[in-house]
Amino acid sequence: MTKPNRIDPADLLAVGDLLTDEERLIRDTVRRFADERIRPHVGEWFERGVFPARELAPELGALGVLGMHLDGYGCTGSTAVAYGVACMELEAADSGLRSFVSVQGSLAMRAIHAFGSEEQKQQWLPEMAAGRAIGCFGLTEPDFGSDPANMRTRARRKGSDWVLSGTKMWITNGSIADAAVIWAQTEEGVRGFVVPRGTKGFSANDVHGKLSLRASVTSELVLEDVQLPADAVLPGVTGLRGPLSSLNEARYGILWGTVGAARDCYTTALDYAKTRIQFDRPIAAFQLTQQKLVEMMLEVEKAYLVALRIGRLKDAGESVPAHISFGKLNNVRAALEIARSARTILGANGITTEYPVLRHANNLESVLTYEGTGEIHTLVLGQAITGEAAYH
């Protein structure tokens, strides 16, 4: 039996029909949570520059989205596509919400899961999966973002212990984290360390005055001769493969999340255009408005298809970093243009927190450059298609 012909303006190509029943259930469950728990409040959180992480973390844990793509230790072991559609619905509400989930699951939890000792996994992963503990990931520094190989944070041995000194910057969840995964240079290469909250010499200072990701906690981490026991180091990796492989997981969540932000801007503009009357007719009836809406719809659907294709490759074990760079570069860029175009349809109303589009646009300015700038992803793709590295 063929399905009846129908047009869903939010998904004209019916890309959602390509999802499995389980993936659609996860999508709808996370969307309902975002609609009921986040959307009524996120405009106010953004305006005030706050994010109630301690309150929301257990709820997100109960929802099953914290480390959902990891196996065991209280994690649900979902597919890459299932995790992707969850990120899509989280970021449709706000990039800060998806960032919290990505940092918790794809960065802090994933690093411990992939490279930690069994004791570290048992201590931290069940608590983080439940949202009873919050994690952060300290790689970026004030002077080194795209070039982590030259990080200045150092770890030196002191007997059987380690002593860490340095500064990390732009760290999501930094001041609220119960455990920070800190990457530092050692004599044998870059190593990761689990630094518990309250460790002597370890402090976090929130970044204020942000115009983007305001509903998100962003911090500077300061390590002043922080002494850690030998079992604080992540034993499973040495070198940049550790942090960069975790970043690739976070970038994967971004390429899905930005589809949600883009869709939210497009559907907001579409609904507004149908009800906003000018010259005795809805502005949706004007050609130039329809052109904007159609261009937005095309880019949303293309981004959705890109995300789904990369997700299927990932689930098949066939994805490579260039695929993730393709999705991150294309989908963030498309989402940002959609947000800007949607704002023009809303006119002056579009600059208020009553509507989400300028909030999304501001957030996407950060998403554009974090977890790899557009320039870096361009060079990753350039190397993939030419065989020549052009980073220097």
Automatic annotation (TrEMBL):
Q: What domain of life does the UniProt record list for this protein's source? A: Bacteria
Question: Which stretches make up the Acyl-CoA dehydrogenase/oxidase C-terminal domain?
Answer: 239-385
- Keywords of the record: FAD, Flavoprotein, Oxidoreductase, Transit peptide
Q: Which residues form the Acyl-CoA dehydrogenase/oxidase N-terminal domain?
A: 20-131
- Annotated Acyl-CoA oxidase/dehydrogenase middle domain ranges read 136-226
SUPFAM superfamilies for this protein? Acyl-CoA dehydrogenase C-terminal domain-like (SSF47203), Acyl-CoA dehydrogenase NM domain-like (SSF56645)
Q: Which residues form a coiled coil?
A: none
Q: Which GO terms describe its biological process?
A: fatty acid beta-oxidation using acyl-CoA dehydrogenase; fatty-acyl-CoA biosynthetic process
For this UniProt entry, the molecular function terms from Gene Ontology, in alphabetical order, are:
fatty-acyl-CoA binding; flavin adenine dinucleotide binding; glutaryl-CoA dehydrogenase activity
Matching entries from PANTHER family are given as: GLUTARYL-COA DEHYDROGENASE, MITOCHONDRIAL (PTHR42807)
The UniProt entry's sequence similarity note says:
Belongs to the acyl-CoA dehydrogenase family.
Q: What is this protein called?
A: Glutaryl-CoA dehydrogenase
Provide the species name: Kitasatospora indigofera
Lineage of source species: Bacteria, Bacillati, Actinomycetota, Actinomycetes, Kitasatosporales
